[in-house]
Amino acid sequence: MFKNCIVRRPCKAMVEGITSAPELGKPDYELALKQHDTYIEALKKCGVEVTVLDALEEYPDSCFVEDPAVITSKCAIITNPGAGTRNGEKAEILPAIKKFFSDDQIEYIKEPGTLEGGDVMMVGDHFYVGRSARTNEEGIKQFIAILEKHGLTGSEVPLEKVLHLKTGVNYIENNNMLVSGEFIDKPDFAKYNKIVIPDNESYAANCIWMNGTVIVPEGYAAVEKAVKDAGYEVILVDTSEYRKLDGGLSCLSLRF
Ligand code: CIR
């Protein structure tokens, strides 16, 4: 069960955030703030304390707190984001992590390794790590060594198309996994009960399990139904403005 979440308010500069889909237009900052409020309320409904960090205008993508850190049951790992404009976010997240973890529980991914938390999917004590344009072989090697030092395990999953691993695949506990596109037939995930996301709703592969409830992005009826049919309570949160920056529900929080 998760007890805590860390989120960071979006900044006005988010309109200059990285995107692979400029055709969706720039995010509406005021609407993004309202959606962030709703997101925080949804997390709280799932029984967690939410730490809300101040917006950081120097980093347009800094509301996506999942990327500069990974939190496990045994340790926190400050990553080394592969996106140049985001790399400095690792220093900005550290004070918040230090409120929950002592220095000997905090590990670091170091150059030349790069890794972003969006590429890390936790399944119990095992962590799948996407090798992507943001997360390199050396970053994965360091990450798995850190996991093993703390009695956890990890394995690499090469990505071909999507930004981060969790853009396309998410574990929602009870052996259930939401899978889309390139992940549907990956042998790595053969042992899970796969809930296959239709191509026209692929954005909604990024749902989060929160203490028995699954938070699903609003506007994806097939995914909402599939998650409900799998037996979960569902809370819908509209993330339209974050989608314009390739960001989804998991990207907006650290959950631990
Ligand atoms: C980026 O390209 O880094 C941001 N615009 C989106 C980050 C999404 N984060 C995630 O999937 N964990």
From TrEMBL:
The protein's UniProt keywords, in alphabetical order, are: Hydrolase
Q: Might you name a Gene Ontology BP term for this protein?
A: arginine metabolic process
> Could you tell me the superkingdom of the organism this chain comes from?
Bacteria
Pfam families found in the cross-reference section: DDAH_eukar
| InterPro entries per UniProt | DDAH-like (IPR033199)
The entry's active site is: H164, C251
UniProt GO molecular function: amino acid binding; dimethylargininase activity
Task: Identify its protein family.
Answer: Belongs to the DDAH family.
- The protein's name in its UniProt record: N(G),N(G)-dimethylarginine dimethylaminohydrolase
Q: Which organism is it from?
A: Aminipila terrae
